[in-house]
Specification:
143 residues, alpha+beta, globular, five-stranded mixed sheet, single chain
Amino acid sequence: MSEAPGRSEAIVRQFYDRAWNAEDLTAYDDLVTDDFIDHRALPGLPTGREGFRQLEVLFRTAFPDVRVEVEGVVEEDDLVAARWISTGTHRGPLFGIPATCRPVRVTAMVVYRVQDGRLSEGWINRDHLGVLPHPREVPAPGS
């Protein structure tokens, strides 16, 4: 069932404002279904809402000052596509990369399915190069 026009966009914006920018992990309980399907879930994390919440904890450990700015949103039926930019300082380990204490900027496109006022499914494409150490430190392809 589709939300009222604009309602799904508001839910996505509220999620980023509360969960990521206000560091309110209860936003997951309020705005994400128990059985949330993350199509880009990291191996080793639980499924559903809890795995989605733990993903934030993982990133927040590495980037304690992370901020997410939703730059644009397109809504159609029960789907919301959003482009966001996150910024922060790499202060903790992430995927075996030690803290660099450097500022990072990551862009992403995400599509969420919103059902009954909650995020129920998500697909994300992140600019992972924005998280990696300085480009001069990233090995060239084939090396």
